[in-house]
Each structure stands twice: as C-alpha cells, then as structure tokens.
C-alpha cells in the first residue's frame, strides 16, 4: 500500500514498513502502557514529512475511521498495521476470571484508539517467533 504524506505524521507497525522517500523522517517508538504484558513493548515507526511511504500487510487491509462522535475503536495489536499521527493508542486488557479458565470471548489485549483519525488493520495476526535453543 502506498501513502502520500503532505506534512502529516503516521505510525506504522515496525514489521510493516517497506520503504519511504528521503523527504520522510522516521523515528522508532515503543508503547509501554501495560507493564509486564509484553516483553519490551510494541515497536512502531513514526513517519512524518513529505513523500511516499510503502507499507505491507497480509491480504487486503481495512481502514477504520475513528471519530469522537462514534467513540473509541479497539483493535488486535497483532492485526494493527498503521494509524494516523493524530491518535495516541493505549494498550488495554480485558482479563477476567473467564479468560484465566479458558472461557474468554475474545482478545485479552487490545489497542484503544480515541479522537479523530483512522486505523489500518489486516485480516491476519502477525506473531513473533523465537528460536528454540
């Protein structure tokens, strides 16, 4: 997917940045809103400036609008690809006694987006794999 930046900023999951032009500045950021839930946090890349950005996704991505009027949007962190720089997501948990005993109804860890902007998700959950040694 190609996106043209005209002075605005976007955040992209670190695994999903493919390329960007020289007029685009980048900075690696890390979310640490839920201590102990993720080893080291979620890494993202903030891209801003002027130019074209290429991002990857598994299958056809879906862009979800986020507005104050409609309320927050919740996404699976492993399926979240990118979001507008106007949003500051939070990691939230939905841990209950049911999730501890295998009776949960959905994802225990979610990203919450509130305000005005958009979020890109993919119909696929990216997973990190560790080598066994």
From TrEMBL:
The UniProt entry, under Pfam families, shows: AIM24
For this protein, the record's InterPro entries field holds: AIM24, AIM24_sf, Trp_RNA-bd_attenuator-like_dom
SUPFAM superfamilies from the entry? TRAP-like
Q: What is this protein called?
A: AIM24 family protein
Native source species: Xanthomonas perforans
